[in-house]
Amino acid sequence: MRLHAYFRSSTSYRLRIALNLKGLDYQIEPVNLLKSEQRDEAYRARNPFAGVPMLEAGGRDRAQSLAIIEWLDEAYADRPLLPPDVEDRFTVRELAYGIASEIHAVNNLPVLKYLKDPLGHSQEEIDAWYRHWLAKTFVPVEQRLDQIGTGQFLLDAPGLFEVVLIPQMYNARRFEFDFTDFPRMTAIEAACLPLPAFVRAHPDNQPDTPKES
After folding, report:
1. Is the distance from CB of 112 to CB of 130 less than 8 angstroms?
2. Does residue 183 have a cis peptide bond before it, meaning omega lies within 30 degrees of 0?
């Protein structure tokens, strides 16, 4: 497998975690979003969505991280990311899809760039926008976790929810989001980050991570 990804992209990050949790081998092919390499003609010919991640696997190029993750779970049944019980699967999807669709859709890089140019918003205004949409979804996610009564993870082990949550929390911290009132989420984050699958997937540990001089 070959994963076309950008080190700080949350969708790339979540797919790296998923691949690692499932024990699948893959090679990273960096795509620099800041240089708009995802819009190069050759790349767009393979991935009309012109984004990351893109996974070369099973004889085709695959886009859209959640679709790829669910395909991985169906194509490689070992170490499933979704639980066997139908109600548990709903719980995982409710929370993971909420974060992926409600936060990422309005806070991804193309949206933030559009807010700055051509709309002309300041970085302070953009940061406020970002934190507003984080809170709109993180608050009910935390409430749901409290209703469930989670421990280290949503269920018995990291799965799809953690795969989506941890990258979004990483980005939230970059925008100085205050997690004081989110003890369930921060406990899950603290349990996940030391695990090898998450360490290997972390943006600081990627081949395209800028090196400090």
Report:
1. yes
2. no
